[in-house]
Design brief:
Elements lengths: L2 E5 L3 H15 L2 E5 L2 H11 L3 E5 L7 H10 L8 E5 L4 H10 L3 E4 L4 H12 L4
Helix pairs in contact: 1-5, 2-3
């Protein structure tokens, strides 16, 4: 079973994502409410992928991603961004940084698992 870590400061987004991915894909979903908590959970839990919100207080998503990349224990975990801003220039920059994809918020809950699976080459 795949395990996804959702790092988002909005409880509602965590819950919607968790319900969708567990129900539709049968994946286990872990959650974290901040970048710092997400880094600790990623290191401890070793999820198969991370869904990361860009706009968060304290440590934003891109800073969180850089910290995940600097850590040998988490640098190989694929990261997909959840963001309200997905312009082609942003997307190009994210892909150059090593981020696998950017999923626009608000996302289509029923399509989320399919989008993640396609991006990462997983079977649903």
């Amino acid at each position: 079973m795949k395990r996804i870590l959702v790092i988002d400061n909005e409880r509602y987004i965590q819950e919607v994502t968790q319900i969708c991915l567990e129900t539709i894909a049968g994946w286990e979903v872990l959650t974290a409410s901040s970048g710092a908590e997400g880094i600790v959970r990623a290191e401890a839990e070793q999820p198969d992928a991370i869904l990361l919100d860009v706009m968060m207080p304290d440590m934003d998503g891109l800073t969180t991603f850089h910290n995940l990349q600097k850590n040998a224990a988490t640098q190989n975990i694929p990261v997909l961004l959840l963001t309200a801003k997905v312009q082609s220039s942003d997307l190009r920059r994210y892909l150059q940084m090593g981020i696998k994809a950017a999923i626009a918020k608000p996302f289509e809950p029923l399509q989320l698992a399919k989008e993640i699976a396609m991006t990462l080459g997983w079977n649903l």
